[in-house]
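Aim 2 progress update. The chain analyzed this quarter is reproduced below.
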Amino acid sequence: MLAKRIIPCLDIKDGRTVKGINFVNLRDAGDPVELGKLYSDQGADELVFLDITATHEKRKTLSALAKKIAENLNIPFTIGGGIRSVEDARIMLESGADKISINSAAVKNPKLVDELAQQFGSQFVVVAVDAKNVAEDWIVHLSGGRIPTERRLFEWTHECQERGAGEILFTSMDHDGTKAGFACQALAKISTDLHIPVIASGGAGTMDHFYEVFTEGKADAGLAASIFHFKEIGIPELKQFLQDKGLPMRLSNIH
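Predicted structure tokens:
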């Protein structure tokens, strides 16, 4: 079995890391490069940086951030926010990102997934999917969960895989920021349906939640933000806890 990955997520707004509940009431959580370096030193397997205010004009800011991250970190990182074309993705790749994350751009133009996979390889393409459980049906949402779409979660994640996505990053909007645990049932269905890795996001609050998401949820990676930013759970302790419970973890890079 492949080692399970722990991935801190840094939401960026105006160059700072922020965190809220269900994508609102944002609090400042520090400088993204400094935080990223700290997590790298603590043994994080990868990092995800998402510019939540990304606009077309901010592409330069995002590529400058990617360069700075690449200069200061030695673990893989994914960058997302406002990537709408092959050209946008190329800029991030050339700035040092290991992967890019696309979300609403993929929903609006599914062929973008094919184009990115053909151009750069599937391993470079992460499709982020935000969904809410509406009347027993998981509906894909855009704009931080504010805008429902016609897309259904399981069909959409399967289509993304078929189009060439290398990974799915699934956030349950119902669980995001609540610290009440991940959407393990939905995650297990996605993970069983797909042969590409699934990153679980939304709901991490305790070390047990990570154990549940890897066992019940069958996720390949667990992503969280505030519990790491506000030092509620330490990455070395979390990885040791999971290893002690029998899950394969990479412990060698923990300082």
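The chain has one domain: 5-244. Residues 168 and 198 are 5 Å apart (CA to CA). These observations will guide the mutagenesis experiments scheduled for the next reporting period.
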